[in-house]
């Protein structure tokens, strides 16, 4: 049976799960003008989460069934521990015309397709900087998802950051790098700020400088067209302060520790996805 195209100019977007990630995606989509809030819906009974979505015009129902019945694209944004129960409950309401999207960590497409009886699926791995419109998101296509479906989801997630496409077999490594990666950077910012305090700076100034320095360095890595090693060399003048600091980082195994962190997180992601 041919897949029915999702109307790019008039589709309705529904979120199953009304948490912070769903809110970040919905806000980004609205703020970028990709979709008006009037065509986005979710469900929650709690006043706090209802108010968060209603504050920018999203329709909030009482039950997930209502979201599914009134959406062309359905995004699963619930905790991994409950996703199977949630989708089994929704299965009778799903239509072949709908595109299903999962942002649920560690849950494979083959399982989602089996539980829903639905193969028009796209899996997305975003990360927490979605909250400030700077997500790194990767999409993987299910068996019946089309190129048009992929373009539609790329547009949606492009509203909250940058989007890449990859085979799902790479998702454990993606989880370890971009999914867990913000935590590594937060740790680095905290350590840099502590270093500033140890060198005599006030705490507020040290933290502000550390955060802005990481932001600026990342922007250069993204936009300069230079390899990070070249950017590093550009800062490290002969016999200067930077190379002295880099020497200490190398003695401490800084690069090896980061590499090991990503590999360890990828291994853990593989273990969790088998449970």
Automatic annotation (TrEMBL):
Domain named Pyrroline-5-carboxylate reductase catalytic N-terminal: residues: 12-106
Domain of life, source organism: Eukaryota
Statement: the UniProt record of this protein carries the keyword Cytoplasm: yes
Chain ranges of the Pyrroline-5-carboxylate reductase dimerisation domain: 168-272
The keyword Transferase appears for this protein: no
Pfam families referenced in this protein's UniProt entry, alphabetically: F420_oxidored, P5CR_dimer
Residues the entry annotates as binding NADP(+): 16-21
Keywords attached to this entry: Amino-acid biosynthesis, Cytoplasm, NADP, Oxidoreductase, Proline biosynthesis
EC class (word): oxidoreductase
InterPro entries hit by this protein: 6-PGluconate_DH-like_C_sf, NAD(P)-bd_dom_sf, P5C_Rdtase_cat_N, P5CR-like_CS, P5CR_dimer, Pyrroline-COOH_reductase
Pathway of action: Amino-acid biosynthesis; L-proline biosynthesis; L-proline from L-glutamate 5-semialdehyde: step 1/1
EC numbers on record: 1.5.1.2
Catalysed reactions, semicolon-separated: L-proline + NADP(+) = (S)-1-pyrroline-5-carboxylate + NADPH + 2 H(+); L-proline + NAD(+) = (S)-1-pyrroline-5-carboxylate + NADH + 2 H(+)
One biological process term in Gene Ontology: L-proline biosynthetic process
Compartments where found: Cytoplasm
Record's GO cellular component terms: cytoplasm
Main location as per UniProt: cytoplasm
Residue positions binding NADPH: 64
GO MF annotation list: pyrroline-5-carboxylate reductase activity
UniProt xrefs under PANTHER family: PYRROLINE-5-CARBOXYLATE REDUCTASE, PYRROLINE-5-CARBOXYLATE REDUCTASE 3
The family this protein is said to belong to: Belongs to the pyrroline-5-carboxylate reductase family.
Name the UniProt record assigns to this protein: Pyrroline-5-carboxylate reductase
Species this chain originates from: Carnegiea gigantea
Lineage of source species: Eukaryota, Viridiplantae, Streptophyta, Embryophyta, Tracheophyta
């Amino acid at each position: 049976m041919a897949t029915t195209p999702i109307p790019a100019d008039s589709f309705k977007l529904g979120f199953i799960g009304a948490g912070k990630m769903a809110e970040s995606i919905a806000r980004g989509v609205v703020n970028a003008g990709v979709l008006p809030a009037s065509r986005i819906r979710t469900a929650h009974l709690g006043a706090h989460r209802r108010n968060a979505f209603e504050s920018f015009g999203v329709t909030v129902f009482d039950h997930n069934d209502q979201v599914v019945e009134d959406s062309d694209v359905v995004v699963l944004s619930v905790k991994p521990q409950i996703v199977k129960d949630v989708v089994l409950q929704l299965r009778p309401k799903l239509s072949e015309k709908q595109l299903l999207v999962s942002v649920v960590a560690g849950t494979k497409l083959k399982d989602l397709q089996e539980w829903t009886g639905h193969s028009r699926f796209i899996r997305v791995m975003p990360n927490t900087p979605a909250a400030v419109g700077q997500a790194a998101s990767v999409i993987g296509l299910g068996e019946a998802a089309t190129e048009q479906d992929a373009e539609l989801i790329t547009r949606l997630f492009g509203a909250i950051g940058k989007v890449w496409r990859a085979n799902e077999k790479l998702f454990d490594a993606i989880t370890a790098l971009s999914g867990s990666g913000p935590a590594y950077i937060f740790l680095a910012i905290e350590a840099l700020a502590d270093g500033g305090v140890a060198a005599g700076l006030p705490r507020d100034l040290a933290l502000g400088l550390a955060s802005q320095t990481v932001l600026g360095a990342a922007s250069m890595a993204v936009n300069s067209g230079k390899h990070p090693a070249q950017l590093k060399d550009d800062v490290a003048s002969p016999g200067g302060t930077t190379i002295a600091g880099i020497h200490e980082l190398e003695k401490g195994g800084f690069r090896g520790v980061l590499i090991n962190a990503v590999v360890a997180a990828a291994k853990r992601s593989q273990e969790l996805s088998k449970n």
